[in-house]
């Protein structure tokens, strides 16, 4: 496997990062995950914007977010992948000693890798997903895509008792988001997802935006509003969106069968609509 490290593509075994890297010592870094179908990145502009924002908000300098597409392209070429997920992580870099305050001049460590993921035809139905409901233990700036992810991992571990793949996080009685995704709740023809612009405790999900667009296109009644925890049990469908999963449909909640126990109707309609949008994009970018 070849990876990207600080401007070079090299075999994983040769990619060495100092233990003094602040990403390792403090989780002082940010990341992005981009899904590729046939070498075309889904929502690449939105990923670049979010990366730029994470860099600005963390004051990490020395990497230009506009270089994301070419970095991904080089990595996919080196790995001979067409349908893949690219993971990019930028940490503040290596300092001489472990001190919370970073030195003034420090070069970021830029690391990226790609893994094979399903092709576009896997998006004909929404994948089934098991969820558990957990308290949101995270900090208040979840709009920054930070590599410090203990707050996301602990609720997932707690959900293991229910064999859950992902946790729905609850803050002050409201659904904030998933541990590594955004959450949609459906009742009848009404689709709701939590607002991002007024709430820095939610990530600006790229697939969230595509799912909202697709649901609107299908004529569903979409509202961006806070979702009470009690709405989860009463929901007809719960959707999970992320670059890795694109859109998955809840089949089990807290260990109990949810809905029919199969991916739900509206979820499948939305993912199909998202697939058609990507198909159109691929036609335009041969
Ligand atoms: N997770 N919210 C959180 C907390 C996330 O970690 C993610 C993505 C999302 C969805 O964002 P997007 O649709 O842009 O992927 C929302 C990635 C995939 C991860 O950590 O692997």
Major sheet summary line: 9 strands, mixed
The shape, in one word, is globular
Q: What count of helical segments does DSSP give?
A: 7
Tell me, rounded to a whole number, the average pLDDT: 96
Order of helices and strands: EEHEEHHEEEHEEEEHEHEEEH
Name the CATH homologous superfamily of the largest domain.
Answer: D-amino Acid Aminotransferase, subunit A, domain 2
CATH architecture of the largest domain: Alpha-Beta Barrel
Give me the count of strands: 15
The level of helicity is: 25-40%
Which ligands appear in the coordinates? N-(5'-phosphopyridoxyl)-D-alanine
Under CATH at level 1, the class of the largest domain stands as Alpha Beta
Low-confidence stretches: none
What separation lies between the terminal Cα atoms?
A: 27 Å
Please indicate the count of domains. 2
CATH topology value of the largest domain: D-amino Acid Aminotransferase, Chain A, domain 2
- What is Rg? 19 Å
Task: Describe the 3D structure.
- It is a single chain.
- The protein has 286 residues and is an alpha+beta fold.
- It folds into two domains: 2-118, Aminotransferase class 4, branched-chain amino acid transferase, N-terminal domain (D-amino Acid Aminotransferase, Chain A, domain 1); 127-282, D-amino Acid Aminotransferase, Chain A, domain 2.
- 27% of the residues lie in helices and 30% in strands.
- It has helices spanning 22-26, 44-58, 68-79, 150-158, 206-217, 230-234, 265-284; strands spanning 2-5, 8-11, 29-37, 40-41, 84-91, 109-116, 127-135, 166-171, 174-178, 182-187, 190-193, 221-224, 237-242, 246-253, 256-257.
- Strands 7, 8, 9, 10, 11, 12, 13, 14 and 15 form a nine-stranded mixed β-sheet that branches.
- A hairpin with a 2-residue loop joins strand 8 (166-171) and strand 9.
- Helix 5 (206-217) crosses helix 7.
- The chain starts with a strand and ends with a helix.
- N-(5'-phosphopyridoxyl)-D-alanine binds at residues 33, 177, 180-182, 203, 205-208, 241-244.
